[in-house]
Design goal:
This protein is α/β, with parallel strands linked by helices. The chain has one domain: Alpha/Beta hydrolase fold, catalytic domain (Rossmann fold). Helix content is 33%, strand content 16%. The protein has ten helices and ten strands. It has a ten-stranded mixed beta sheet with strand order 1-2-10-9-8-7-5-6-4-3, sandwiched between helices. A hairpin with a 2-residue loop joins strand 1 and strand 2. The longest helix is centred in the middle third of the chain and has 17 residues.
């Protein structure tokens, strides 16, 4: 059964949560620091951050980055969710469905992974959770990645996925584009590409811990460059070098430095102690400056893309519930819409 509204995690705000509005932007700060979140932080500091410290000076070596996605096989999949492979012009994707799609909505999900890793397995649990809670199909895109392909190719694959959804007959007014980390960057770049191509805009954007600016000056100078549990301060320079090398003569575009006029209502979530916190704030400010309705939600003392740990970390479960609340507010579920089923994987 698809989770009913009463079965969803609660998104009720606590007394210590602080909300304030500036122009078109609403910012809410959430408390953090639970025992579970601290344990997760310690685990990531001693594993992922150490690995990235090793990768940073050796990024030119032929690292087997494709194997990282298979770590997701260790995670439990969400019960009742089904998967159907989809072929796009230049990459694979996966249509993920609840037993019965009842909300009349559709989600395009763009995973994170530093433009290097991720794909079919690493994000299956988190995507499955959103499928279940929203009662909606999700198309997850295994876009082309560094170091074999350019950032431009990644963006093109996401636009191809959006066109594919439209070709399925999905009403763009019932469509949400979501992404985390590098996928947050791709969500914004996809929206800008949609506008440039003259395609109809989706109803909303959701970006969790988004990367939004190729200029790393602000990020490296901010206190969060030292407090982040995932990214060492040495990581941005090789990422920029790899992306510049693969993009060749094509300019790397920062969505936070673009004209954002006409983008749909947007939710941005980030941690106040993660490396990409300055990118999240900058993007929210720029959306506000261009008159785009935006919610910026900031959690204290959480790791990068902490929403992936919603099964064990209470702040992550609350953040996921906030995503559901935002989408329900912008695009309420409609039982009048036709349902969609997936074939078993």
């Amino acid at each position: 059964m698809t989770a009913s509204r009463s079965e969803r995690p609660s998104a009720s705000r606590r007394p210590e949560d602080d909300s304030r509005r500036t122009g078109a932007m609403m910012r809410t700060d959430f408390a953090g620091g639970s025992v579970q979140s601290r344990a997760l932080e310690l685990a990531l500091r001693s594993t992922v951050k150490v690995a990235l410290r090793v990768w940073a000076p050796t990024w030119r070596l032929p690292w087997p980055v494709g194997l990282v996605d298979h770590a997701g096989r260790l995670l439990r999949t969400v019960s009742g969710v089904t998967y159907e492979p989809v072929m796009l012009p230049h990459c694979r994707a996966e249509l993920v469905c609840p037993p019965r799609a009842t909300s009349g909505r559709f989600v395009l999900y763009l995973h994170g992974g530093g433009f290097h890793v991720g794909g079919r397995h690493l994000h299956r649990q988190m995507v499955g959770r959103f499928v279940q809670l929203l009662g909606t199909p999700v198309l997850q895109v295994n876009y082309r990645k560094l170091p074999r392909h350019s950032i431009t190719s990644s963006i093109e694959d996401c636009l191809d996925a959006y066109r594919h959804i439209l070709e399925l007959g999905v009403d763009p007014a019932r469509l949400i584009v979501m992404g985390d980390s590098a996928g947050g960057y791709l969500a914004f770049m996809t929206a800008l590409g949609i506008r440039e191509a003259g395609l109809p805009m989706p109803a909303a954007l959701v970006a969790m811990s988004p990367f939004t600016d190729w200029d790393h000056t602000l990020k490296c100078a901010a206190p969060t460059a030292q407090t982040c549990a995932v990214f060492p301060r040495s990581a941005p320079e090789p990422l920029l070098a790899a992306a510049t090398k693969c993009n060749r003569d094509e300019r790397l575009i920062s969505p936070a430095r673009c004209d954002l006029t006409g983008l749909p209502p947007t939710l941005i979530q980030a941690s106040s102690t993660e490396f990409l916190y300055p990118d999240a704030v900058l993007m929210a400010d720029q959306l506000d400056a261009h008159g785009v309705p935006c919610e910026l939600q900031v959690w204290n003392q959480q790791v990068h893309v902490f929403q992936a740990a919603a099964a064990v970390v209470p702040e992550a479960a609350q953040a996921v519930a906030e995503v559901v609340r935002f989408i329900d507010g912008v695009l309420p579920p409609s039982s009048d819409e036709p349902t969609m089923r997936c074939r078993p994987a």
